Amino acid sequence: MASTEASHRERGDVASPPREWRRFKFPGSLYRWGGLLLALVFLSYSVAYLNIPLERFINMFGRVGSLVTDRYYPPEIDYVTDPDYLASVVDTIQMSYLGALFGLLMAIPLGWFGSYNMTPSRRYVYPLARFMTMSARAVHETIWAILFVTILGFGMMAGVLALTMFCIGFAGKLFAEEIEAIDMGPVEAIRATGASELMVMAYGVFPQVRVAFTGIGIYTWDVAFRAATVVGFFGAGGMGWYLKRNILQIETYRVSAILLSIVVLVLIAEGASAWARALVAKAK
Question: Count of CB atoms within 10 A of residue 44's CB?
Fold first, then answer.
């Protein structure tokens, strides 16, 4: 009998258990369907209020294809292989690396102070650290670039600082959430020995978040590299400066070549970061 039942199970002949019937409960069902109805009404109102011509989406892809083939094809590949442009690529990589490095170094203590379970003071330090992280994250990296270019002038320094602020807000929140998710058992055991808070972080917290912090650091650099190609458009140097100059000069073939080079570099960076994150995941 058991062998027959096993053979039927392997062939998929055994019927699945019947689904449990449940009645709609008031007012839960009212809230659920009422919320869905309000969302649909708000979406319809927004489309009508903003006067979005939905019918134009049907022909949009054809117009985009015609625009690309008429104005942006073929890309001027010789322009992106020029030594000066390749030097700007190196500048962009260096800018993203320095911005991510400085941002991560500042985000680690902010993540420590901004974690509710490990902050030195939940009344003063915790809200201050959270406010600093939130402030850095609330402002877009392009706004940071414009601000630092206005203060420091055109150049890589403004781009590095803009990416630093961006990485502080991006990584600081992730670091704090990882610390808040740790097991407090080892932490309490080390505290019971009379260890200082720095030793508690070094021996009780860091071993639990080491792999997660490494993955967050790699992902932060990946995002910073993509942002570095944009902040240069606003005067921070690198590839973005070449993109802005050729857009203003309506050099469409060069613009398409620059965009193509940015896509290729982002794909390479994505592959490198994915490979590094896979190595980090195996370290668990």
Answer: 10
